[in-house]
Amino acid sequence: MSHDTETVALRKFGINETYQLAMYLLDQYRGTTLSCRYAMPPRLVPAESRTQLEEAVKVAVVDTIMRHPMLQVGMMNATSKTPSWIQLQSLDLTQHIKWLYIGGHNDFEQTVQETFRVQLDDRFPDLSIKQPGWKITVIRQGNAPIMEVLLTWNHPQFDGAGPKVFHEDFLEMLNNAENGAYERTGLDGDILRLPQAPPLLPTPIENLKSLPLDLKYLAKVFWEETRPQFLNRDVSQAAWCQICTSPYKTQFRAFFMDNTSLLVILALCRQNKTTITGLLNGLALIAFSLHLDNTVAPAFQSSTIMDHRRNLPPARPEDPWARSDRAVGNYVTQLPHRFDAGLVARIRSKLSADASEGRDLSVDLQHELWAVSAQNRLEIARKVGAGLRNDLVTNIGVLDGKTSDDDQRWSISRAQFGLSAEIPAAAIEFAPVSVAGRGMCVSANWPDCAVDAMLGERIMADLERWLAQLVSQS
Q: Which residues contact 176 (CB under 8 A, 6 or more apart)?
């Protein structure tokens, strides 16, 4: 059989990959996007440098693809019980790199946000055509010294930490290519011929680490899954939020915090033995307690996305990504947190009876906030220490934007992370991301057909206002 026509199955999907594919096929999750704003070298800024800019971006994408095999592979038997990753002979880069040029009269930020929202709900090309499930969209405006790069992907291909690595490596490749060497083996116009040797894919997490489940934990999970509904007294479940699958539409909101404010928040977190993740969980708990009545929501639960790359064995010498924490694949799980009825009642008792919006956190509520946030951080720390124990099976963190005083080099000034509505998951999902030395973006998404937009907007407004209050009072 010739190399040109042969379909080479590389490996079967792992557990996480299979779950994410099922979510996509059932139309209960669509896309995820990490967008970064790039400061450009002056020589590529003028509109007449468009050809050189597009070539520089294409070559940097090619170099990033060659470092990460999950960017090179397609899937087959997607609707079967055992889908597989397959080797592809080539990639048509016009399917993976899109350019959007806008006029000077357009609002750049508005265009970025509209494009971001649309891409979250876009479906990918038919899986049977066998091309990788990812693309970048580059937004440029006139002679502005910046460009926005949106990476949108299908979750079976990789998790939310993978695109952080993509953008950091893409940035590295852009700077490496500044010597002007744009020739790449296998690149003919927009067609990238991939190596004949099968790519080495990251190993599924369950094959890298044993998953020791103690009997008590297994029994607890089995009971929670199979007990009759009338015995289910977990009042922390979001019974107030209906599970609605159609019409599928994501509501997305985001706000930004400058670096000066972020440094104050980080210092407060350290003083109170928590993290940004713990603090956001605590703030969300107070906001939900404020806007939902005790009769419909006497208690709450949330979950934190955990990246387990820190628990992986060292990368093999032959792995092109070099370090296990730089692997682009699916290595995240979820850690649940429960906030019982007693805690929620105590928080509600400290909320002002005045139902008007725009209230600040009282001193008493701030004590509750930091206690909850510290507990949340403890639960995360225990999980990290336990590795993968008692886990049956997003927080991206800080992105290195390589900011410097050298304006001849590429750098990243800000990032925004967003998820499409995940039907069986949380009613509202929050996704923070920051760029080192440049501030933070906090986004939220929810299913339009299940969560009232006013509720989501009020909760996001509370989070933004309370973070600003904590900064101003420090």
A: 60, 63
Query: Angle at the Cα of 313 (from 311 to 317), degrees rounded to 5?
Result: 145
Separation of first and last alpha carbons in the chain: 70
Neighbours of 251 (CB within 10 A): 20
Q: Identify which of 45, 61, 144 has the alpha carbon closest to the alpha carbon of residue 98.
A: 61
Q: Can you say how many angstroms the Cα of residue 53 is from the centroid of all Cα atoms in its chain?
A: 27
What is the four-CA torsion angle of 389, 390, 392, 396, rounded to 10 degrees? Answer: -60
> Is 400 exposed, middle or buried (CB count within 10 Å of its CB: 0-12, 13-18, 19+)?
middle
191-193 and 90-92 beta bridge pairing: antiparallel
Among 260-274, 278-292, 382-396, the least confident range? 382-396
Q: Reply yes or no on whether the pLDDT at 432 is more than 70.
A: yes
Q: Which residue's structure tokens are 């509109």?
A: 47
The C-alpha atoms of residue 288 and residue 266 are separated, in whole angstroms, by 23
Q: Mind listing the pLDDT tens digit for each residue in 107-127?
A: 999 999 999 999 999 999 888
Q: How confident is the model at residue 215 (pLDDT cuts 50, 70, 90)?
A: very low
CA distances from 320 to 35, 66, 136 (A): 24, 8, 22
- pLDDT digits over 166-199, tens only? 999 999 999 988 666 667 888 999 999 999 999 9
Can you tell me which residue has the tokens 């649309």? 118
- Residue 402 is encoded by which pair of tokens? 């390589």
Residue 391 CB-half CA count within 13 A: 26
Residue 354: CB atoms within 10 A of its CB come to 7
DSSP string, 161-181: HHHHHHHHHHHHHHHHGGG--
Whether the per-residue pLDDT at 2 is higher than 50: the answer is no
Q: Rounded CA gap, 96 and 118, in Å? A: 16
